[in-house]
Amino acid sequence: MKKKVLVVDLDGTLFSINTFHHFIKYLIFKSIRGFNMLLLFKLILAVSSRLFLTHAKMKFYVLNIIKHRTDIDFNEFVNTISTKKRELAVLQDSSFDIKILATAAPSCYANIIARNNYFHKCLGTDFSDSNYKPSFENSKIIKKNNVMSYLSNLNINHIDVLVTDSIDDFPLVELATQNIIVNPRESFVKLLKQKSISFEVIPQRP
User: Closest Cα to residue 169, out of 117, 102, 109, 107?
Assistant: First the structure.
């Protein structure tokens, strides 16, 4: 029997915020409260690198700073942003056999969000022990490839419903049977219409 698949984005979709930006603030405030000046200096240096590097590379440096630390409470961070979660009706649909949270956000806390919201799988941006590569961030075509690779291992080659807010997920939009777009930018809506892709819009809610 064909299994029904739901794929949901995190930042701007399941949560109304960019969780990674809030995570950086959490780390900075934590280092200040703990008088950890070395951690604070490293974080500020990594964030400042965004002035001349890509967002993905900045994320790589931030995650490299914390990947071996045992004093970062990812559950605590998730609790601090819990009020920013949207109540998406589609998540309550019990007809889905597989629910995937697919995000460019770091897996270190995205996995917790996925578990708290009863997703079967979280595909996020993982810590890396190698040098930076463009494929490091689970975004755009990389995200699509990772989602389809996961499904392929389950002998599934389709997405029934995709929920996202971002034009970055267009590679997944093209594959989904049904697209639910949360508070989309005008440029995203224009692209969907140009490509004759049907979609449903969910307006922004608190």
Answer: 102
**pLDDT tens-digit readout, 24-65:** 999 999 999 999 999 999 999 999 988 888 999 999 999 999
Sort 133 into a burial class: Cβ within 10 Å, 0-12 / 13-18 / 19+. exposed
Range of lowest pLDDT (51-55, 152-156, 157-161): 51-55
Number of other residues whose CB lies within 10 A of the CB of residue 144: 21
pTM, full prediction: 0.94
Q: Judge whether 164 and 74 are in contact, CB under 8 Å.
A: no
CB 62 within 8 A of CB 45: no
* CA dihedral sign of residues 43, 44, 45, 50: positive
Contacts of 110 (CB under 8 A, 6+ apart): 10, 19, 101, 103, 122, 124
- What is the DSSP secondary-structure string of 98-124? EEEEEEEEEHHHHHHHHHHTT-SEEEE
Average confidence (pLDDT) over 199-204 = 84
Distance CA 12, CA 174 (A): 20
d(CA 126, CA 137): 8
Q: 201 pairs with which residues across the strands? A: 181
